Amino acid sequence: MTAPWRWIPPLEADGALQMALDDWLLDQALAGGPPVLRLYGWSRPTLSLGFHQRRLESHWPSLAAAGRLALVRRPSGGRAVLHEPEQAGLTYALVQRPAQANRPRAYADSCRWLQRAFRELGQPLAMGRAAARAEAPLQRASCFATSTAADLVHANGAKRIGSAQLWRQGTLLQHGSLLLAPSETLWREVFGEAPTPLPPLGLGGHELLTLLRRCAEQDLCAGGLQEQPLGGEEWAAVQARAERYRWPAAGASLVSSAPEATSPLATMARAT
Fold first, then answer.
1. With 90 as the cut, is the pLDDT of residue 215 above it?
2. Which residues pair with 7 in a beta bridge?
3. CA nearest to 201, candidates 88, 125, 122
4. What pLDDT, in 10s, does the model give residues 26-36?
5. Helices (H), strands (E): how many in the chain?
6. Cβ within 8 Å of residue 156, ≥6 positions away
7. Residue 103: its pLDDT value, please?
8. Which residues, at least 6 apart from 161, have a Cβ–Cβ distance to it below 8 Å?
9. Of 92, 98, 120, 157, which residue is least crowded by CB atoms under 10 Å?
10. Sign of torsion, CA 69 212 208 198?
């Protein structure tokens, strides 16, 4: 019989703590723990940077110093993602050991539950295959400026969900950001233009969480989901590693981006 996945109830917390928790969950899976799925929010506006991302805009530390947002590193790859509290967006993290360490296959399999959910909402999503639009240099630093085979897009090319991976000894941590209603003002401050318009979902936050959990049980978690909040010792272990994900306001290295790869699979490989 297939063992159930661990479901950690949704929580809103500091970005560094959220990243430390996902990294810790990956280590637990390597030590024999169960696969995990969780959905969560951010307690303040935060710009998360992909682990290998070296293109940092000079005004980002200034925005952080002014208190407009926090900067954190993700353990997973990809480009910068702007996260906001409340109804602006939702993040998912899943940890599992796929049958085979094939990145394109893992993305397809790990996103099927999200595609089911949006089909039920009458807004089917497909895996991205090309750039969503021609972007200015600043936009190339944004996860949502392009769509690759790692992402889910609407029929018109608008990117709804961006995902990235971290593989460790055959075990996968996959992050994804589900864009709902981002702040146009903050998005312009960070990326230099407004976010791509997205159709409204027509349901509240609790309804969306319920839908996503049900679809995950159908298309992702073969053994079902077993709710298990974090215990005190677990929280202590997570808090002990949170500082490694905070981006220092001083001393950040600012470098120009390299030319972009045109192949979706090549881009995806670099972003994981």
1. yes
2. 37, 227
3. 122
4. 999 999 999 99
5. 7, 11
6. none
7. 85
8. 111, 114, 125, 151, 152, 176, 177, 178, 179
9. 120
10. positive
Banded model confidence at residue 259, pLDDT cuts 50, 70, 90: very low
Residue with tokens 């969560």, as numbered in its chain: 40
Q: Where are the alpha helices (DSSP H) in the chain?
A: 15-30, 59-65, 103-120, 184-191, 205-219, 232-239, 264-270
The domain total for the chain is 1
Q: For position 149, what pLDDT does the model report?
A: 81
Q: Is the pTM of this model over 0.85?
A: yes
Residues of the chain with pLDDT > 90: what percent?
Answer: 69
d(CA 105, CA 267): 15
The residues near 253 (Cβ < 8 Å, ≥ 6 apart) are 54, 56
81-83: strand order across its sheet: 70-73, 46-49, 81-83
Active centre residues (catalytic): 143
Of 40, 268, 7, give the one whose Cα is nearest residue 143. Answer: 268
In this structure, what CATH number is given to the domain that contains residue 144?
3.30.930.10
Q: Which residue has the tokens 């637990």?
A: 28
